[in-house]
Protein 1
Amino acid sequence: MDKNKKIRIFALGVFFTFTILIFQFKMVLAQSPLETPKVDVNTNKEWVVRFSRNLEPSTVNNSNIYVTDEDKNPVPVEVTLGSNPNTVLISPKTGGYEPGKQYYLIINDAVESTSGKKLNKPLTLQFTTANAYSDGTDYQYLPNISSDNFEYMPLLSSQKQEFFINCSSGTSVQYRIFVNAQDDPDGSYTELTNGYTSEENGKIISSKILSSGTNGEKYKVIIYVKRDRAVGIHRDANTDYDNYYIDYFRCVDDVDVNPDDYLAYNVSLDDIVKSQVDLKGNSTPVFVAANIMDNTASRNQIKYYVNPNNFLDSYGKYQFLKLTYTEGTEVDNLNDFLKGKGIFEGMGQSFLNAAKANNINAAYLVSHALLETGNGTSQLASGGARNSAGNYIYGTPVYNFFGIGAGGKDPIRGGTDTAYRNGWSTPEKAIEGGASWLASQYINNPSYNQDTLYKMRWNPANSGQHQYATDIAWAYKQIPNIMKSIQDVSSNSANLKFEIPKLKE
C-alpha cells in the first residue's frame, strides 16, 4: 500500500482513553494494526480510526464503514467524522454490543481523501467483546451518571415513571430517557422525554404511560446525559450524548400482596447486590440469554432481580411461593401434564412419591425438572455425558434432572459425575435422589430454610452463600411452569402460602 494511503487504527482498551484521544490527539496510548484481532473488548467500545489524510465527508458513512456479527449480519453503529477531519468514530449500537460475541469492523475501499485518493483494498478488524454486561459508558471529564432511583417499583400501567438521577456535574446537565420492552420483538426504543430536558425538583417525569404486557413487562431504560447547551461528544441510534446509564424496572397491572405474607430481613437491597457483585469464579452471577451461560451480569441487572418490590403482582409473586408439600395433587393429573415432556412422560407417580417423601411441593418439583432439562430432553436427562465415540462416559446412562453439580465450565460433565456418584442410574432414582437433595440442602434444611425460589437463588439471610443457581433470572424463569403445573395438577391452589422478603431501608 502507498505510504500516503496508509490507514492506522488506535484500539484503546478502556473508555477514558477515548476522551484523551478526542481532545489531545497526540496522546496516543496504544497503537496496533488492523490485522491483529482484539479480544475482551468492552461492550460500549467506541473505535477511533485515524487516516493519514483528511477524509471526504460524503464517503464517511454506514455503507463504507460498518460492523457485522460473526455471521456477517450488519450491526447498527453510528459512523461520524471526529473533530479532526482525518479521524472517524464508530460508536456501538444503543446499549452496546452483545457480550461474548465476535464482530468485524470493515472499512471498504470507497473511503476517499479530500484529494480523491482511495484505499487500495478493504480493511477488516476482528474483535470479540468481553463476557460481561455493562451498565453504561464512563467517558471521563464529561458528565457521568453514577446512579438513579425509580419512584415506582413496580410501575403500574396507570402511572408515569419518575427518575431521580445522581450525576457528577450536578444540575448543569440535561437528560434524555429511552426504554426498551424486553418482549419487544424488534428491540426498538421508546422515548420517555421530549428531547433533552433538565431535572425539576430533583426528578424527571416520564411523558408516557407504558404497557404491562401479558404477565408484567421488564423495561430496560437508557438515561443519556450531556452538558447543558452543548452537543454530545458521542452518538448512537437514539441521540447524541456525553455518557449514558442503563437500568431496569418492571411494569405491572396490579399489586397482589397480603400484608401477612411479608417477612422482615435485617439486610438492605444494596447489601445483597454488593454481595452478589463480589462473587467470583463459578459463583459469578450471570445473565443467561440464548443459552449463553458465561456472560457476567451487570450490577443493575442483578439489582432488578434481587429487588422483591419488582415482583409483587399476581404473576411475579410465585417466586415467593412456599415450596413445602401440600395435599391435592393427583397422579392422573401429573401424567396428563407430563405428556410430551420427553423422558418424564408417564413419571407422575415417581414425582408424587418423591414430593411426599421429601416434603416438597409436587408442582414445584415437576416445574424445576422441566426447566433444568428443557422439558425432559437435555443431555443430562438423556443419560449424561458421552465420549468422542458416542458412548456413555461411565459405560451406562445416569440421570440428573435438577442440574445438581452442573456448574462451572463443563456443566454436562459436572452433572453427569454427580449423578454417577449418587447412583442415579434410572429416571426413578434420579427423581427421588434429586428431590432428597433439594429437600436436605435447601427447602427443609434447618440451617438455611430456603423454602422459596427467591430464597434458593438469593438467600437473603446469608446473601452470597449457599445459593442454588448463578443465573440471576433463575427464580423468575420458574414461574410459568410452576403456575401451570399448580393449575393443572393441584386441587387446592387456594391454600398456597407465600413469603415475601421485606428488606431493610
Protein 2
Amino acid sequence: MTHPRTPILIGVGQVTEKDPPIEEASSPLDLIEQATELALEDAGISRGTLSELSTLVVVKSFREPMRNTPEALANQINATKATQWLAPDGGNGPQYLVNRYSEAIFSGEEEFVLLSGAEAMATGRKIVKSGSKPQWSVDSDKDADLLFADRQMWNDHELKHGIWQASHVYPLFENALRAHYGNSLEEHQIMMGQLFSRLSEVAESSPHAWYPVKRSPEEISTATPSNRFVGWPYTKFMNAMNQINQSASLLLTSIEKAEAMGVHPDRWVFLHGASDVTDVWNISYRENFYSSPSMKIMGDNALNMAGLGIKDIKHLDLYSCFPSAVQIARNELGIPTDDHRHLTVTGGLPFHGGAGNNYVMNSIAAMADKLRSDRGSFGMVTANGGYISKHAAGIYSTEPLESDWNRETSPIVELTTEDIQSPDFTETPTGDAAIETYSIVFGRSGEPENGIVVGRMGDIDDPGTKRFLALVDGDTDTLLSMTKEEFVGRKGKVRRDKETNRFTPAL
C-alpha cells in the first residue's frame, strides 16, 4: 500500500500569450493567475481550495517587475494564509522546488503547495519600444522573502574577462566539446543543427510553443541576417528564447490531502526519483569544459532512487538552453547519440520558449500531460542553472511507488575543487601559452566584437599547467579567423594589460 503522505503532482497549467495589443496584454502576475486557474481545472478542484495552501512559491523573473510578487499573488488568489516565497535565479529552480517540497510533504511539514512563475518579456519589450514603461507593480510595504540567498555566478576576475552573459559563456563548453571529440568545424556545426532540429520537431506540435515550426538543420546552423551568430559557434536559433510571454503553475500535495479534496487518481503523477547537485561554482576551476561530473551524479542519484536505468525512461526533457548543455547531459546520462527518443517534451528553450528561470515549470507540466496519456511509462526532466553549475532532476510516472517515498542521498550534493582534478589558476599570466577553449562574441551587426580565451601556460593536455583567462588581443580579421579554423590548442602569447589579460594567437 502506498503511504498516504506520498507526494504527488495533482494539477498543471501552462499559458503562452502571443502578440496581444499592449493595452490587452497580461502582466506576469496575470499570467501566473491564469496558469494557476488552469492547474486547478486540471486537478478538478475549485479556486476556493487555494485558501488551504500551506505554501506558495513564485520563481523570480529575469526582470522582476514587482516588489513582492508572492504577496500580490496570495492576495489575488485568496491564499493569504500560505507561507510566501520568491525563489532566486537559476534554471534548476522549478525542479529543485518540486524535489524540496515533495520531501516536505512526505515529512508532514507541508500539506498543499503552489509553485509558479512567468515571464512577459515580449510585451515588456514592446512597451519599452513604444516609449513607455510597464505598469505592472502592485503596492507592497515589504520586499519578497527569498527562499534562499542568491549567489553570484562569477567572481570579479571572471567578470573582467567576459564571463557573465550565458550566450557568451556556453560557447566555451561547445568549442571544448568539438575539439575533445575531434570533429571538424563543419561537422560540428551540422551536428548542432541536427540536434536542435529534432527539438523543433516537437515544438511544431506543441500547443504552448512560441515557435511551433519545424526548422531544418541547415536553417538552424547557418548564420544569416535573421539568424546571426551570437556567441560563436551559436546562431540565434541555438539560443534560449526568453523574449516571450509564458507562465506555468504546479499543484503538489499528498495522497491523503488529494483524496480529501476529491482529486481523481487519474490526475496523480508520482515523483519516483529526485536529485539536486551543484558543480564547482566558478568555471575557472572546472576540471574541463567538455564534461560534467555534477550532471552524472544528478542522473545516477535520481535513477537509483527510482530503481531505474536510463533505458527505462521513455520520455525525456533535457535542459536545452544551448547545444552544449544538451550534449553534456546526454553524455553524462548515458544516452547514445543515435537514440530514437526525443530529448524534449516541449520543443526546448529555443523553440518552445525559455521563460527565464521558469522554463522547467513548463517542462514538468508538459511531462505530466505526456505521462497521463501514456500511463505507466516513466519520464525524466533535467534542469540546469548558471553555466552547467546547478542541476536538478525528477523522474515521474502515473505508476504508484512500490515503497515509501525516500530520498536516500543528501538533499543537495555540492562538488568542490577537492572532488575533481581542478587545475591551478593564475590571474596574472605572462609568456607562452595555448588555448584550452574559447568564445567569439558577435554584435548585432553580424561582426565579431571580442573573444574570450581559457588558456594554459603550456600544453593544454598537461594537467599540471596553470589555467588563465584572457581576452583576444587582435582585430576583426583575427577574430574571424578563429571561427574559420580550429583554435583549441593553438599556441600564442599572453600578457597583462592593466586589469585584464590579453592573448595573441599565432596566426
Protein 3
Amino acid sequence: MLLNEKEEQFDDPLTVQINKYADRCINNSCIDESLYNLYDVKRGLRDKNGKGVLTGLTEIGDVHSYETIDGKVVPVEGKLFYRGIDVEDIVHGFLKENRFGFEEVTYLLLFGELPSEKRLANFNKVLAEYRTLPPSFVRDIIMKATSTNLMNSLMKSILSLYSYDEKPDDISIPNVLRQSLQLIAKMPLLSVYAYQSYRHFKLDGTLMIKNPRKDYSVAENILYMLREDGKFTPLEAEVLDICLVTHAEHGGGNNSTFTNRVVTSSGTDTYSAIAAAIASLKGFRHGGANLQVHHMFDNIKKNVSDWEDVEEVKEYLGKILDKQAFDGAGLIYGMGHAVYTLSDPRKVILKEFARKLSIEKGREKEFALYEMIENESPDLIKARHHMFKPVCANVDFYSGFVYSMLGIPEEMFTPMFAIARISGWSAHRLEEILNASKIIRPAYKYVGHHAGFVPYEERTPEEGCEEVLRDLEKGAATEAAGETGENTEKEAPEAAKERSEEKE
C-alpha cells in the first residue's frame, strides 16, 4: 500500500503529518543500488558469494559447511562444534548416560572444557541458587505494562535487573561471570512469567506463577512452570533439552551473537549487552523464523486437502514461491541457510526427536507432511530462483513443530531460543572482554552530496502544516476539557489493592 493511500484512510491530523514525513524520508534516504557494487560494499558483512567477512576470532563455536578440495570450495554435510567438540557427539554422549545436556553444554561453552560429574553437580547447584528473582520483581516489573511480544518483555526485565545489581557496571571477569550465570538461570523464569502475565492480562487467562524446582533441569522447569498440573513425560523433557542444546551456540557471526560482541566492545554493562542480543534475536530473519515456519505450515494444512498427495503439496508450495499464497513473500520458511549447504546438523538431530515425539503425540501424519516438504522444497526453490547453491532445511524447520507438540504456546517460540542462546552469548561476551582491545567500528562510505546552508526564508514552505497544527490544538483543548481515553488493561491484584489504599 502506498503512503498516499494510507493518508486517505485516516482523519487523524497527526497520522497524516507522519505519513508526509515518511514520504519525505523515503524520497531523501534511498541509496542508488549500483553504488554498492561500485564501492564493493560487503552488504550484510558478506562478500559477493555470501561468505561472511572475517571480523574476529573465537574458540567457542565453529560452523563447518565447506571443504577445499584441489583448490575448489566444495559443499559438505554441515557440522557444528562447541569448543571443538562435535555437537552430535555431545548429544549422543549425554543421552547414552541418560541425563540432560543443556547445563553441561553451558559449562562447556563458558569454561572451555567438559565438566566432571562432581563439577557438573556443583555447577547445577549454582544455577539452582540463582534461579530466583528479586522480591516483588514479578509484580513490579513483569506484570506492569504487559507486552504483546514476549521478547520486549524479556528486554524490559533484563534491563530492570540492572537496578537490582550492586555492581552493575563492573566488567571484571569474576563479576561478568557472576552476572552471566544469574541471567542464564533467570532467563526461563523471565520468559515463562512474561507469558503467564500476557496470558492473564491480554487473553483473560488464569494467572499462574510457579516457583521453579531446584531438583529439576532447565528443560524440566520450563515444562513444570508452563503447565497447570506441572506434569510431563520423560520424552517431552528430553526433547526440550535437545532443543536447548542445539540452539545454545552458533559461532560469533550470527546476528545476535555479533550484536552482543559489538555492544560488549564498547565497554557497556552485561544487562545492556544481553538486551541488545535479545533485540536482534527478535527479528523474523533470525530467532523469529521458527514462528514463521509454524504459521506457514498452519496455512499449508488448511489449503492442502490431501497431505499425502505429493503433487498437490508441490503445487501449493509453487504458489507460495510465486507469491500467490501464504504471506506473499515468496519464501518457504525453514529452507535454506546463510552458511549450511547440504545439511544443518541441528536439524538432523532435532528431526529424529521430532519423529519420536510425533509418535507419542499421535501426530505422525503431520511429521510426514513436514518430511515431504523438506524433501520436495529444494528442487522447487532452485528452479524458481535459479539457484546453484544447495538448499537444505535449517533448525527452524522442525523446532516450531516440536514446540507445538510440547504444548509450548507460539508466543514462547522465540523466547525459547533466547533461553538457550544466552549460554553462547555469555561465553562470547567473556571472550570479547578478555581478548578485544578495540571498539568494533566498521566503515560506511558517505555517498550523499554536500550542500550549503539555506536560510529560513529561502526554504520550501510546509504544505498543509497550518491545518495540522490547528487540528492538534483543538485536540489538546478537548483533552484538557476532560475527554480522555480509558486504560482497559487489567491490573494485577496487588497493584489494584495498592491503588485503593492510596485513595483511602
Protein 4
Amino acid sequence: MKQKILSIIIMVLMPSLFFAQSSEESISNKINAIFEPIVGGMSKVIFYKPFSFIGLEIPLVVLWLVLGAVFFTLYMKFVNIKGFFHAIQLVRGKYDDPDDKGEVSHFQALVTALSGTVGLGNIAGVAVAVSLGGAGATFWMILAGLLGMSSKFIECTLGVKYRNIDVDGEVSGGPMYYISKGLKLKGYTNLGKILAVIFAILCIGGSFGGGNMFQANQAFAQLSSLDSFSFLIGNGVWFGVILSLLVGVVIIGGIKSIANVTDKIVPLMVGIYVLSALIIIGLNFSQIGHAFKLIFNGAFSPDAAFGGIIGVLIVGFQRAAFSNEAGVGSASIAHSAAKTEEPVSEGIVALLEPFIDTVVVCTMTALVLIFTGFAENNQGFEGAELTSAAFEYALGGWSKIVLAFSAVLFAFSTMISWSYYGLKSWTYLFGNSKIADYSYKTIFLLFIIVGSSSTLGAVIDFSDMMILGMAFPNIFALYFFAREIKIDMVDYFKRIKNGEIKSFK
C-alpha cells in the first residue's frame, strides 16, 4: 500500500522537473512575484505594531508571547525549574506504563517535537538575531527559552488531556482540539470553534512555511556552498524534488514512522552540531567570560546602533519564539500521541524542549559567532551561511562539510515533524480521510520545491508570519485553561510524592 502511495506522489511531483530552467534566478523571481505581495499584505496583520516605546515599534505578537510566558511561569510557580529533573526521569522511561494508550513513548514524543524545533532556526535564526541585535540578543533568547518552558508545559498537558483516540488507536490532538473541546466545556462553544479553525489554518501555513520552505531554502544554501556540491547552484528545483521524495518516503507512515526516524536522527544531528560548537568553545575558553560580558552588556545597552534595549529584546524574543515555538502550540500535536494516562507528565517532558533548543543549542551558536568575530561583522553573509562561515573560520574547511551535513539533517527532521502538525490541522478542517491525507502530503511535498527556489527574504517572512501567528489563538485559549492545569499539576506532584503514581524502572 505504501509503495502505491509513494508511486502516486512521485507521479504528481515529476511534472515539477519540467519547470527546472537554466536560470535559477528566473524561477526564484517568478515565485517571489506571486509570494511577496501576499506576504506583504498578511504581515501587516500578523506583525501589527500598535505600541511604540522610545521611538521603537513593538510587534504585538512579540508582546503577546512575552507576557504569556511571564504569566504562566509565575502562575505555575516556576514549574520550568521545579519539574526539570522529573522531566529527565520521565524521558528515561521511569514512569512508562506499557498498558497506557497512545502511539509513541515519552522519549519519541520529545524527539519528534524537538526535530520540529531544533533545526535551522538554531543555525540561521540565531545568526539573524545576532546580526540584527548584536551579542545582546542572545541574552533575551536565553530568557525567552527559560520562560517559554512554562508555556510549553501548559499546551502539551492540554494536548494529551483533550486528545482524540479512534478505534484503531490513532491519536489526534493539539490546540485545535483542546481549544474547541475545552472551551465548549466552559460554555464558549462558538468561540472555541472559531479559534480552533484560525489555529488550524495558520498551522497549515506554518507547516508550508517555517516547517518546510524555510528548511528547504537553508538546506539548499548550505549544501550548494560546498565546493563538492557547487553543481547545485542554479538547480534549486532539482534539489527540492529529490528532498521532497526523501521526505515523502518517511511521512507516508504517519507519526510512528516519523518517531522511528526522529529518535535516531535528532540525537545524531544535535550531537554532531553540539560537539563541533564545543570544540570551538573549548579552543576559546579563555574568552568565555568576555563573551558573556558582551552578551549581558549588549542586552542592556542603550546603543542606538542595535535599536537600544527594547530593539534587542524584540529581536531576541522573536527569533527565540521561531526557534523553540513555545506558546505557538505546534509541539502539543506531537506530544498528544504519547503513551500516557497522565497529561501533566507529558507537559513536564515538554519542558525540556525550549531548554535544549534555545538555552543550550542557540547559546552555543551565539558563542561561536562571538568568538569568531562574525557577531560584530557578518561580512555579507546571512542566515545559515553566516553560522557556516563562523564554523569554517574557527575549525577549517572540514567543519563546513560537517555543518552542511547537520543542516540537511536539521531541515529533514523539521520537515517530517511539521508535515505531521500540518496534516493534523488539515484533517481537523477537512475530515480524517485517505483523500485528505494524500492531498495534504502531496501539497506539502510540492512546497519543498517552492522553498528550494525562493529567496531567503520571502521564505523567512512567510515563516514568521504563519508560525508566530499561531500564538494568538493558542495563548488566548491557554489563559482559560491556566487554573485547570494548575490544579492538575498540584495533584500530579502530590501523587508522585506519595507513591500513588508508580515507577516501572
